[in-house]
């Protein structure tokens, strides 16, 4: 009898956790991403972590820039900026002026423009898993 009560208690706790998880996952506040654009700058030579931190802080400090990420192994700087408050060419000019290595603005090809997010690696496990989940619906 004691084992049955413990089992029922554990089952009830798991059901409560599941219900709370479903509620939290489905009732998030809406994200307002209207007018947010992503852009990328490619570094033509390797940068170290201190140079990357300097570039990231300079870009994050610019008005209208929402977020910035530096992928050091690939040498890419990806940032989100607000249209109308910031211009990707101005961000590039700022980065080019302080970057210790040469850099270029990333311009996606016509094929990449039609295939969705040009920054996403289409051979990655995350991308393939997400497409597999999307194929169910």
What does this structure look like?
With 137 residues, the chain is α+β, with helices and mostly antiparallel strands. It contains five helices and four strands. It has helices spanning 2-26, 49-60, 88-98, 110-114, 125-134, and strands spanning 36-43, 65-71, 76-82, 103-105. A four-stranded antiparallel β-sheet has the order 2-3-1-4, with helices on one face. Strand 2 and strand 3 (76-82) form a beta hairpin. The chain is elongated. The model has no long low-confidence stretch (mean pLDDT 87).
Percent of residues in helices comes to 40-55%
Low-confidence blocks of residues: none
Mean pLDDT: 87
Q: What is the tally of helical segments?
A: 5
SSE string: HEHEEHEHH
Using only C-alpha atoms, the radius of gyration works out to: 22 Å
Biggest sheet layout: 4 strands, antiparallel
Beta-strand level of the residues, as a percent range?
Answer: 15-25%
Per the principal axes of the C-alpha atoms, what is the gross shape? elongated
Backbone structural class: alpha+beta
| Main sheet strand line-up | 2-3-1-4
Q: Please count the beta strands (DSSP E, at least 2 residues each).
A: 4
Calculate the terminal CA-CA distance, rounded to whole Å: 44 Å
């Amino acid at each position: 009898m004691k084992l049955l009560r413990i089992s029922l208690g554990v089952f009830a706790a798991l059901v409560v956790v599941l219900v709370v998880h479903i509620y939290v996952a489905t009732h998030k506040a809406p994200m307002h991403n209207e007018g947010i654009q992503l852009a990328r700058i490619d570094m033509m030579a390797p940068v170290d972590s201190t140079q990357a931190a300097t570039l990231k802080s300079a870009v994050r400090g610019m008005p209208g820039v929402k977020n910035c990420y530096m992928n050091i192994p690939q040498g890419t700087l990806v940032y989100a900026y607000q249209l109308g408050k910031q211009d990707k060419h101005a961000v590039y000019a700022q980065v080019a002026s302080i970057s210790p290595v040469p850099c270029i603005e990333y311009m996606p090809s016509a094929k990449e423009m039609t295939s969705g997010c040009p920054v996403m690696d289409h051979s990655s496990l995350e991308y393939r898993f997400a497409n597999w989940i999307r194929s169910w619906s």
